[in-house]
Each structure stands twice: as C-alpha cells, then as structure tokens.
From TrEMBL:
Annotated organism of origin: Cytobacillus mangrovibacter
Source organism superkingdom: Bacteria
Pfam families: ABC2_membrane_4
Regions crossing the membrane: 21-41, 61-81, 102-126, 138-164, 171-189, 219-242
Protein name: ABC transporter permease
Keyword Transmembrane (UniProt): yes
Keywords: Membrane, Transmembrane, Transmembrane helix
C-alpha cells in the first residue's frame, strides 16, 4: 500500500493539470484583493469581510468544480492511456489500488480547496496592514471544515471518474452535476419530507454553512460528522465498483 501511495503522490506532483489549476487559483487570490485595494477608494478594507464573504464565498464553487477537472485527468485519463491496466496487473489488490488513488486525489482536492482562501487572506492582510483580521479560531475552523468537505466531494468525483473512464465525459458530467444538483435536490426537498431531511443533512447543504460565525456544539458536530460519513460511504461504493469493473 505504501508503494502505491508513493506512486500516486509522484504522479500528482508531476500532473500538469493540477499545477495549472493551483497557479490559476493563486493568481486569482493575488489579483482580486489588489483590484479592491487599488481602485482609488479611501475606505479601509476589512480582512475579516474579505476572507468571510469573498474568499469563503467564492470557494463554494472552487471546492465543488475545480477538482472535477483534476479528477478527469488524474483518474479517468488513466483508462484511455492504459495506465490503469498496468496498475491492475501489478499484483496489488483493487481495494488498495483504489484507496491509494482516492487518498492522493483527496489530497489534491484539499490543496485546491485551501489555495484561494489562504492566498486572498494573506494578500489582503498585507495590503490592508492587517486591518480587522478574522480570529484564529474562526480561520482554523473554516479551513478545517473546508478540508473535510473537499474530501467528501472528492470521493463522489472519484466514483464518477471510474464509472465513466473518459476524462472529457468525467469533467463535463461532474461540472454539470455539481452546478445543478443543489438546485434539483432543494426543489425536491420542498415537495417530499424524506428528501427534505436528506437535503438538510447532506454535504451539499451543510457546506454552505461553514462560514457562519456562531455555531452551536450540535451544529458543529453535524458539520464535521456528515462529510466524514460521505467520504466513507462513497469510498466504499467506489472501491466496490472498481473491484467489479472490467479494465481494458
């Protein structure tokens, strides 16, 4: 298992799509606050507001959409290239192969999820002279929850990637899925009580609440517990599908 993880980590480090996405997010995180601070306004900018509403608000889309591109190139493309067939013939169990790939893909998704909010907060703090910084416990909590939800969504992306086995189809389907599913899920929840309960306890809805300032212990536990369960559930489902799937 250790060698599989090292091999997948090496591939992630060399993945051009991954570094292109990271560089794009870094550039966005740098230039956005610069546009705000150099627009000629004399009003002091709050880093707390910049982090909470701009960084975390924009990250809602980044966490769910940007890793979809990585999933297509990092997982699905290995089928068309024949790499997956070679890995499957290496003597390692498919369970280990899948979880090694899921683990490293999840790490990639975590890095993507953290890049924009951290960069925009750091740049904003430097430009504003650290004016009205968010509290350390708020930063740690929101970034920690961002990691959990990035991993949860990554497990869904990994499952779709091994089902479709084509990078173009995977990227297209996942982007449409994450753009439309929230609205469809919410609409159905307004008509059916069971679906409403599922929606209220889903990672899709709870992810939008991680930037809230005041969270009770029960709410915080729910925000932590749901993405962990989501990751485990889709991880097990993905490993089952991968074990049953014919690799050509």
């Amino acid at each position: 298992m250790g060698n599989l993880v090292k091999a997948e980590l090496f591939k992630l480090k060399k993945d051009r799509s991954f570094w292109t996405l990271i560089l794009g997010l870094v550039a966005s995180g740098i230039f956005y606050p610069m546009l705000i601070f150099f627009d000629g306004s004399t009003q002091a900018i709050s880093v707390n507001d910049l982090y909470t509403y701009t960084a975390l608000g924009g990250n809602n889309y980044i966490v769910k959409l940007v890793p979809c591109i990585l999933a297509g190139f990092f997982i699905s493309s290995e089928y068309s290239m024949g790499t997956m067939k070679s890995i499957g013939a290496s003597g390692n169990s498919r369970f280990r192969i899948y979880y090694a790939k899921l683990l490293i893909f999840s790490i990639g998704a975590m890095i993507i999820a953290l890049t924009f909010p951290i960069v925009i907060m750091v740049v904003g703090a430097i430009l504003s002279g650290f004016n009205d910084m968010p509290t350390l416990d708020y930063i740690v909590r929101t970034l920690g929850l961002t990691i959990l939800y990035a991993v949860a969504f990554a497990s869904i992306m990994a499952l779709v990637s091994i089902i479709l086995t084509d990078s173009g189809k995977t990227i297209g389907f996942l982007i449409l899925f994450f753009i439309l599913f929230d609205s469809i899920f919410y609409g159905l929840s307004q008509k059916f009580s069971l679906i409403e309960t599922l929606f209220n306890y889903s990672a899709f809805k709870l992810f939008l609440e991680i930037s809230e300032f005041d969270l009770g212990d029960g709410v915080l536990l729910k925000l932590i517990f749901v993405p962990i369960v989501t990751f485990v559930a889709f991880g097990l489902l993905g490993s089952y599908v991968f074990r049953k799937k014919e690799i050509k």
